[in-house]
Amino acid sequence: MTSIAALVLSGLDPTGGAGLLADVSIIKGEKVHAAGVPTALTVQTGKKVVSTRRIPRNFFRDSLLAQNDTFSIRGVKIGMVGSAGIVQEIYRFLRDLSPQWVVLDPVLFSSYGTPLISDGGLKLLKKIVPLCSLITPNWLELKILSSLFGIGGKKKDLLCRTLSEVSGTSVLLTGGQEKERGTDYLFHRGGMITFSGKAVRKGNFHGTGCALSSLILANLIKGHEIEKSIEVSKRKLEKHLLSGFRSSDGRWFMGG
Ligand code: PLP
């Protein structure tokens, strides 16, 4: 046994469908240990984020350092970050630790439109992007992130390519266009790779972005190249979706 671990920094969604609880269980399902520090607390049902609370910045920092004393952190997954103070602490931690892998799922809104990051947090996210190995935005998140770097436009491939070049980070545009759901595009080392996938049409699933980025991080830590990690992760995600179930309030949750 070794003390190699992934460190998950994301919001605590008590339903377990997204955020910290989901990320940790998915990474552990890949046989990689995952420690997790909450960036924010939320009250939510399957469909609705009812409210969010900040985590005190010093408390968050102490927890990051405690995990670093406990494990050899090989990769970090960042999801919902909440507030500017937390983004600043994540920036310092990544800068000082330089983990081998950093995957950022830039969670800006819930599927039902609740903002999950403050305005100040969003501005500072620009500092974190260049420290990441891979970012996994959907189309809306890509447009907003690009605008932080002064990049605009309606062409998805051009936006991804430019953001990747300017930030020095690989970009996986998730979700594809509406008619190609399940298809993702990777911009990596100047080239583009298309990953086709099955659109599992059972219903509106909770936490699929969280699950994909966590699966990719786990597979990078296991030693796969980025392309292979994405390919393997998409197949695993499809399995989780196919074994999903419907919650009492009508949202779909991934199976184990
Ligand atoms: N809560 C947390 C902590 C999340 O990280 C996310 C998404 O990443 C959500 C809620 C919203 O999930 P969804 O858009 O699937 O409803």
Q: What would you note in describing this structure?
A:
Helix content is 40%, strand content 23%. The longest helix has 17 residues, at 226-242. With 256 residues, the chain is an alpha/beta fold. The chain is built from eight helices and eleven strands. Strands 3-2-1-4-5-6-7-8-9 form a nine-stranded mixed β-sheet, sandwiched between helices. The protein has a two-stranded antiparallel sheet with strand order 10-11. Pyridoxal-5'-phosphate (PLP) is lined by residues 10-11, 13, 18-19, 42, 49, 79-80, 107, 110-111, 206-207, 209-210. The site of pyridoxal-5'-phosphate has 16 residues, from β1 and α7.
Query: What number is the mean pLDDT?
Result: 95
Q: How many strands in all?
A: 11
Radius of gyration: 17 Å
The separation of the N and C termini measures: 24 Å
Q: Major sheet, described briefly?
A: 9 strands, mixed
Apparent shape: globular
Write a concise keyword list for the protein shown above.
256 residues, alpha/beta, 9-stranded mixed sheet, two-stranded antiparallel sheet, 8 helices, 40% helix, binds pyridoxal-5'-phosphate
Provide a compact summary of the structure:
This protein has 256 residues and is of the alpha/beta class.
List the helices and strands and how they pair.
Blueprint (H helix, E strand, L loop, with lengths): L3 E9 L6 H11 L3 E12 L4 E6 L2 H14 L1 E7 L5 H14 L3 E4 L14 H10 L5 E2 L3 H10 L7 H12 L2 E4 L10 E5 L2 E5 L12 H14 L4 H17 L2 E2 L5 E2 L3
Parallel strand pairs: 1-2, 1-4, 4-5, 5-6, 6-7
Antiparallel strand pairs: 2-3, 7-8, 8-9, 10-11
Helix pairs in contact: 1-7, 2-3, 3-4, 5-6, 7-8
Bound molecules: pyridoxal-5'-phosphate.
